Amino acid sequence: MLYGMRVGYKRNVMEKFSCKLNPGLALLTDWIISSGNTALSIDLLISCLEQLNRDDIVEVVQKGQGTSFNHLMGTLKLQSNDDWCAGR
Fold it and tell me: What is the dihedral of CA 39, 42, 43, 47, to 10 degrees?
């Protein structure tokens, strides 16, 4: 959950995500919803993911820019796995 730490999530909040079927997707979904899905928040998301060398997720997010939130989340769900934010 390195991404969560980089963008300021508190440990107790991140622990709630670990109980989810797909913690990485839950964290990403929360970030996009709580940030209002603005261009600035997406730029920050991409920047953090690039620092974690998660180009696979960056590619999905960039392809999803300009599409609906539900479509983006569906794409990420299909292409991600539970450790996407672990900074492999």
Answer: 180
